[in-house]
Amino acid sequence: MELDAKVSESGDKAIRVKGGLSMRFNAKISEKIAFALLGLSALTVVGFVLVILGYIIYNGYSAINIGFLTEMPRLMMTEGGIYPAIVGTIYLIIGSMSIALPMGIMAAVYLNEYAGETRTTWLIEMAINNLAGTPSVVFGLFGLALFVKYFGFGSSLLSSSLTLALLILPVIIRSTEEALITVPKEYRESSLALGVSKWQTIRHVVLPAAIPGIITGSVLSIGRVAGETAPILFTGVAYFLPRLPDSIYSQFMALPYHLFVLATAGTNIEKTRPIQYGTALVLLLIVLGLNLVAVLIRRHYRNKLKI
Amino acid sequence: MLSRNYREKTIEWALFLVSALTVVILLLICLFLFRDGLLLFKDTSLMDFLTGKFWYPTSINRQFGLLPLFFGSLIVTAGAILFAVPLGIASAIYISEIADPKVADFLKPFIEILAGVPSVVFGFFGLVVLVPIIQHSFNLPTGQTALTGSIMLGIMALPTIITISEDAISSVPSTLEQGSLALGATKWQTIYRVVVPAALSGISAGVMLGIGRAIGETMTLMMVTGNTAVIPSFPGGFLAPVRTMTATIALEMGEVPQGSTHFHALFAVGSVLFIITLLVNLIADSIKKRYKFKVD
Amino acid sequence: MTEAVQNVSQPQIQVENLNLWYGEKQALKNVSMQIPKNSITALIGPSGCGKSTFIRCLNRMNDLIKDCRIEGRVLTEGKDIYGPNIDVVDLRKKVGMVFQKPNPFPMSIYDNVAYGPRIHGANRKDLDGIVEQALRSAAIWNEISDRLKSPALSLSGGQQQRLCIARTLAVKPKIILFDEPTSALDPISTSRIEDLIINLKKDYTIVIVTHNMQQAARISDYTGFFLMGELIEFGQTRQIFQNPREKSTEDYITGRFG
Ligand SMILES: Nc1ncnc2c1ncn2[C@@H]1O[C@H](COP(=O)(O)OP(=O)(O)OP(=O)(O)O)[C@@H](O)[C@H]1O
Ligand SMILES: [Mg+2]
After folding, report:
1. Cys bridge to A193: A64, A234, C58, C97, which one at CB 3.0-4.6 A?
2. Which residues of chain C have pLDDT under 70?
3. Looking at residue A2, what is its pLDDT?
4. 3-state DSSP percent of chain B in helix, strand and coil, to 5
5. Mind listing the pLDDT tens digit for each residue in B104-162?
6. φ, ψ for residue A59, nearest 5 deg
7. Cα distance from C67 to chain A (closest Cα, Å)?
8. Interface of B with A in 9-38 (CB under 8 A)
């Protein structure tokens, strides 16, 4: 009990005044209450997730069928499917990932394997942090000013993909860096000790060992590309197109924007509710599916390394 | 041997150039944002923009006053932080200190999922579920209010706050904790007297980043806050529609003629937004640095 | 000190007045040593006395450490490895290294051994032969010849360490450095690796750091005793163990400190 008193010296008068057994008792009770409240908070967070997912799944699943996924919208988008929006989102993913992934991996390799503690490195780290924190609508403005107007790519798949690529670049750099950090330094040392050059060591030992982490990070940023709306708003997404984009200079439809338009500005908001729920569910399934894939990849590689 | 060294150097340079590109991109963002933003001040003075109380971009007597948008962003973000911070930190403490590891492993994926849900989906959910609830429970003409935005935004900021706080809490050395427990302190006393104070700067970094995320959020707010550009009163403003800086840009950029004053005004709003988030991130960064130093 | 090795014509490794600093802290002080060809040299001394630091100077692994500064000369076959025209990558091909903890790459057994030769441009059709030869020299071929494609990390600790030795042999070095190669292994694996090292002596020059006095006495021809960054005594192993010149050497060997 003496010891107990010592600990509580610093504050909490209630505990100090009583002392003895009852003090121990009070401490126990307040602990019980505190833990219950903390547990309740965690449960609330889980509750939010379940309610949001549950609501969208419950309302959306009846709207989804093969036709919904493979048909063009009809009658001013009040009927028909969301095929062009799905295709547009896939094009965006391919476009932005094929730019951001190689760039992100290269930058991460430089920062983790080569960069010393110089001013330049500090500047680069700083730039990445700030890019990561820049709001997506600001990226949209930037894409409009640079790609659409200045480079003259127009409102197009190309402009939007480039804008999204910049948005996820910091995400990919950070996750790749994290993956590289977990590669044991012994791998690097023993490869170098075999008379293998630094780049070849990175290429043949470090990167392969980091691949699970890199893939996990990229899969998660694909989810980000699929869900972002603000950056494509003024750089290329179209309200309605009766055909698929036929070149990188075409405009396109995309799932998140489609949902936004139908829910806020469609010709008949109430009538298209089922399409809205369906679109939200498809979007959610893509993102959750990618999350699941990321988890599975991580687990697969972890087991493989364990054998 | 020479050709190999040459190749190694070339590769290192190429990798360096790519990473330096991030700095270039950030500079380009500043350049293009500020360039178009500054053009606003040919027509409107900087003072009128920063202290103007009215955002009337299309009326004949048009005015580009930032204040209604700024306070719109502020009230929504403040509301979000007010409920997301305690909830997030409490959950982080529960997950990293109290929950059985199995329970924690069960809880974490939910937070990852929450982080992955696209903002339009949050906005859509807010629009069809929360807006009617708010409207009916407060008997309002519309449920699209600052409060609605705050609630949705708070939920969206939770994953950032929880993940970073959890990291900070888990990195408190266990010897510190054991020391306190060995003195006879209960687990709870140890948590709030020893663990949380030691993790405080890490937790504050998480809160700052959560704020950064909230200020920059666009789609959700555009869908649930009603988008009326008036300076909100306090606290009554929570139950009235507001319009944030982000929503203003997203709503109006599609309709303005490029190169017009209105167009430049939106870029000016974007520049302000960019500067605010830049500051928030710098603060978070410096807090995190201090906290790393402390753990060493 | 040098008289013990006077009879050797040209030393494989010749260290002259080697000094090394980690930042402000001096970790090696004026170390000189001559290591003859096809011999085993053991380096002993209490923890933190600079054995690893010294051995890592011999293949310039310390280059990887930031603010590590080196003065003095290290000559192999008469050439200063810290000289201006030395290519570190080529040097490390000639001076292999086996580490304390077995650390095979997360690849198959075969790919681990083939890793070095492949990158150094070995002919694809020669590869099988090189791998088999290296695994045989490392005395592990018989145990694993039927599962070359299985992951290296599935082997036991002792097997992994012999695999790492095979991986080093496959690059065909002239000198092999061992930094406490058996300290993470059980006694049986340890004695296997000791036998293996003795066997390797006929083709390679070997330097081994060890904390195990018996090991040093059993397998080495020469022994160097380090204390706080200084080479206190260097000579033939028998002499060092039976008739040390320095008091501190005797104290260490008889277990009075360290
Ligand atoms: N990278 C480094 N940076 C700074 N100091 C170092 C570094 N590596 C080693 N040292 C210091 O140099 C001294 C010699 O270390 P070294 O690892 O060579 O000792 P050792 O004899 O191999 O010890 P052990 O038997 O424990 O392996 C030690 O005091 C150590 O703390
Ligand atoms: Mg050592």
Report:
1. C97
2. 1-9, 257-258
3. 40
4. 80, 0, 20
5. 888 988 998 899 899 999 999 999 999 999 999 998 888 899 999 999 999 999 999 99
6. -85, -20
7. 11
8. 11-12, 14-16, 18-23, 25-26, 28-29, 32-33, 35-36
Alpha helix positions (H), B39-118: 46-51, 67-93, 101-116
Residue C151 lies in a domain: no
Q: Catalogue all structural domains in chain A, each as residue range(s) with its CATH number.
A: 2-63 (no CATH), 72-306 (1.10.3720.10)
In a domain, C217, yes or no: yes
Residue spans per domain, chain B: 46-295
Superfamily of the domain at B46-295: MetI-like (1.10.3720.10)
Residue B25 to residue A3, Cβ atoms within 8 A: no
The answer to whether C121 contacts chain A (CB < 8 Å) is no
Compute the residue count for chain B. Answer: 296
- Tokens standing for B100? 């059985």
Interface mutation target, options C98, C119, C169, C175, chain A, most CBs of A under 10 Å: C119
* Ligand 1 site, CB within 6 A: C 22, 25, 27, 45, 47-53, 65
Q: Is residue C237 part of a domain?
A: yes
* Interval C86-104: pLDDT, tens: 889 999 999 999 999 999 9
C94 to A196: CB separation less than 8 angstroms, yes or no: no
All residues of chain B having their beta carbon less than 8 Å from the beta carbon of residue C87 are 1, 4-5
- pLDDT for A220-255, tens place per residue? 899 889 999 999 999 988 888 778 888 888 889 999
Q: What is the pLDDT of residues B168-204, one digit of tens each?
A: 898 888 888 888 888 878 888 888 888 888 888 889 9
Closest Cβ opposite residue C103 in set A190, A192, A196: A190
Does the structure show a pLDDT above 70 at B36?
yes
Regions of chain A short of the pLDDT cut 70: 1-24, 75-78, 266-267, 304-307
Say what the pLDDT of residue A107 is: 97
Cα–Cα distance measured from residue C165 to residue C102, given in angstroms and rounded to the nearest whole number? 9
Tell how far the Cα of B270 is from the centroid of ligand 2, in angstroms: 57
Residue C238, domain CATH: 3.40.50.300
Q: What is the mean pLDDT of chain B?
A: 89
Q: Is A144 an 8 Å CB contact of chain B?
A: yes
Is ipTM strictly over 0.85?
yes
Cα→Cα distances B159→B87, B162, B210, B270, Å: 11, 5, 8, 25
**pLDDT of C72:** 92
Residue B31 confidence (pLDDT): 95
In sequence order, the β-bridge partners of residue C26 are C21
B122: phi then psi, degrees, rounded to nearest 5: -60, -45
**Encoded amino acid at C146, one letter:** D
How many A from CA of C52 to the centre of ligand 1?
7
- What pLDDT does residue B52 have? 80
Per residue in C223-237, pLDDT (tens digit) is: 999 999 999 999 999
Asked if the structure places residue C17 within a domain, the reply is yes
Q: Which of A133, A141, A227 sits opposite B212 (nearest CB)?
A: A133
Please, where are the H alpha helices in chain A?
2-8, 13-18, 20-60, 66-70, 83-109, 119-133, 136-143, 157-181, 185-193, 198-201, 207-227, 230-233, 255-264, 273-306
Domain tally, chain C: 1
Domain range for C208 = 13-100+177-253
Q: Which residues in chain C are contacts of A307 at CB distance < 8 A? A: 151, 153-154
